[in-house]
Automatic annotation (TrEMBL):
Residues 274-326 form the Peptidase M20 dimerisation domain. Keywords: Cobalt, Hydrolase, Metal-binding, Metalloprotease, Protease, Signal, Zinc. Its cofactor is Co(2+); Zn(2+). One of its GO terms (biological process) is proteolysis. Residues 1-17 form the signal peptide. PANTHER family: CYTOSOL NON-SPECIFIC DIPEPTIDASE (PTHR43501). One of its GO terms (cellular component) is cytosol. GO terms for molecular function: metal ion binding; metallodipeptidase activity. This is Peptidase M20 dimerisation domain-containing protein. The keyword Cell membrane does not apply. Residues 115-232 form the Peptidase M28 domain. Residues 369-392 are annotated as: Disordered.
């Protein structure tokens, strides 16, 4: 019953599939689950309505106003205002210490930064076995290309879209901010709430290598049962998980200085592939989502086979655990040589019609949009379907400007 009551707080929370939305969107409370969650959660916070501190509208930023459970969403609102990139968790850890001391709770921190806050059992749960609740305090820091946001100092701007809480052009930090908020909500419950002894473990630097968890010493914890609140799918309890590994691949690369190119020999293009869903490279890797870097690289390879082309710059984000949803590429080629070449593969959007429309202007923007209607050939996908008829993606290739040599 302890585990059911504690886990009930996280049942209504889920994240969607894109690299931005997986870490940046939380479904507030789906209606069928809402009633069940309220019934179970009320068993551990029935008396808190009259004794819990009110969450001000300022703390909620107006966006989280009225959401239940109030204790959880209030903490999530406060957490969203604290910058917390991986390896820069000092501010959020200081905030956790303040909460512990304000509520007269014991806390402990190791040399890596991991922190444990302990709450004794209450209202009949004093002699129960302690339960460890774990989450990580850092977040994925990704933003759209047109958004000016400094994750090291700017708060997250929350948005509310129907039943969804999102962020304005950035990741939200629901991974794992919502788990941290749930743990804090339990830690600060009134002492009249029936709870077992709790050890809330907050680890650091999960997103860039699980550094905190790897260096955690077992002597820091007394509990033998742990709930990890950094799950992937809502409504599920995991008894274990797979691991991960890194592969380093070295390939020969020939480079040349731009100054060595003869003026007038090449035309410069900037190509953008965007509009894909993206996702997490672990949980979404088998769902058939297109990777914008792979798709654009495949398109440029088609051009390269036809005539000489050189890649100048490619930008597809800086997170290795995210499926790229938008990528920018600058390249130059001898386009006039193959003006009559048409690529009919629907996955390749660098078509003759698109590029020809942009050939004779310096400022024209060409946008091509298509929906995939058939799966790409197996030899192109290497066993991975980039797009499927059941879940079409938009892919756009844009030549934004004609660059000249200086």
């Amino acid at each position: 019953t302890w585990l059911a009551a504690l886990a009930a707080m996280l049942v209504p929370l889920r994240s969607s599939g894109s690299s931005l939305r997986r870490a940046g969107v939380v479904r507030t409370i789906p209606r069928p689950i809402r009633r069940w969650r309220q019934r179970v959660f009320s068993e551990i916070c029935r008396e808190s309505a009259s004794t819990s501190p009110e969450i001000s509208s300022a703390d909620m930023s107006g966006v989280l106003e009225g959401l239940e459970p109030k204790e959880l969403w209030g903490r999530f609102g406060e957490l969203s205002a604290i910058p917390r990139p991986s390896k820069e968790e000092q501010k959020v850890l200081a905030w956790l210490k303040t909460i512990a001391e304000e509520n007269k709770l014991q806390w402990e921190q190791d040399s890596v930064g991991n922190m444990v806050i302990r709450r004794p059992g209450s209202a009949g749960g004093e002699n129960a076995a302690p339960v460890v609740i774990q989450g990580h305090v850092d977040m994925v820091t990704e933003k759209n290309n047109d958004v000016a946001h400094d994750f090291s100092k700017d708060p997250i701007t929350l948005l509310r879209e129907g039943d969804w809480i999102t962020a304005k052009g950035t990741t939200l930090g629901a991974d794992n901010g919502i788990g941290v908020a749930a743990a804090l909500a339990l830690l600060t419950m009134p002492t009249t709430t029936k709870l077992p002894p709790l050890e809330c473990l907050f680890t650091v630097d999960e997103e860039t290598g699980l550094t905190g968890a790897k260096q955690l010493k077992g002597t820091m914890l007394k509990g033998k049962t742990m709930l990890n609140l950094d799950t992937e799918d809502w409504g599920s309890v995991y008894m274990g998980c797979s691991g991960g590994g890194d592969s380093t691949i070295s390939l020969p690369l020939t480079t040349a200085k731009t100054a060595s190119l003869k003026p007038g020999e090449y035309e410069w293009y900037e190509v953008t592939c965007k509009g894909l869903k993206g996702g997490h490279s672990g949980m979404d890797i088998a769902t058939g989502r297109g990777n914008s870097i792979r798709l654009l690289a495949r398109s440029l390879e088609t051009v390269r086979r036809a005539h000489q082309a050189k890649l100048s710059l490619i930008k597809g984000g800086n997170k290795r655990n995210a499926i790229a949803r938008c990528v920018d590429d600058t390249w130059h080629d001898t386009w006039p040589r193959t003006r009559n070449r048409v690529n009919t593969d629907p996955v390749h959007m660098c078509t003759h019609a698109d590029m020809h429309a942009c050939t004779h202007t310096h400022t024209h923007t060409c946008m091509h949009q298509t929906h995939e209607t058939t799966s790409p050939p197996a030899h192109e996908t290497r066993g991975m379907t980039e797009m499927t008829p059941r879940d079409p993606r938009d892919m756009r290739v844009t030549r934004t400007t004609h660059m000249t040599h200086t």
